[in-house]
Amino acid sequence: MKRYKSIGALFITAISLTFCATKQELQTEFPQEIQSAFYQKMQNGNENSGTHFYIEFKKPLATNIKLEKIYFHNQESPVEKITKNTFVAHFYQRNKKEDLILDSNPAKEYGNKAPVIQKSKFDLKPNEAILKYKKDNKTQFFKITNLIEKPLR
Residue 98's closest CA among 116, 119, 73? Predict the structure, then answer.
């Protein structure tokens, strides 16, 4: 009986340590100095709207660092290089208006689809973002705070 208890305790400990290892740890400092990080909201008529997220470095990005994704406003987007010091991520929102059937008889509303709610990987404030990057082929995460919205020129 003692053997089963010790095996059970060992199994529970192993499972709990496995889940601790999967948690993503945020870096407190980025390996290179960021000059500015900001976003701009765009409106393209009725069809598309979006946000462009910019990161500017004081010096060109080091060769051992590769920016991968930005997590911002419950969305994620790959990072693209504009210049040697400037990178951008685009977040698009398409306004899909689906027809809903509303009727006093619930059976006639059967074809309506429930809204899809996506849970973000990170719990962020509206002025925060997470930058996913690789340094020496090791994936790391950095939290960018105090983001500002710049108006379009």
Answer: 116
Q: Which three-class secondary structure state does DSSP give residue 54?
A: strand
- Please compute Rg for the chain using Cα positions: 22
> What's the CA gap between 56 and 148, in Å, rounded?
13
Place of tokens 């983001």: 147
Q: Which residue has the tokens 């960018």?
A: 144
Sequence-distant (≥ 6) Cβ neighbours of residue 23 within 8 angstroms: none
17: three-class secondary structure by DSSP: helix
Strand order in the sheet with 138-144: 26-27, 138-144, 129-135, 65-72, 75-78
How many CB atoms are closer than 10 A to CB 132? 19
The candidate with the shortest Cα–Cα distance to 57, out of 91, 88, 26, is 88
Q: pLDDT tens digits for 123-134?
A: 888 899 999 999
Average the pLDDT over 21-41 and give the result: 81
Q: Which residues contact 137 (CB under 8 A, 6 or more apart)?
A: none
113 three-class SS: coil
Phi, psi of 20 (to 5 degrees): -65, -35
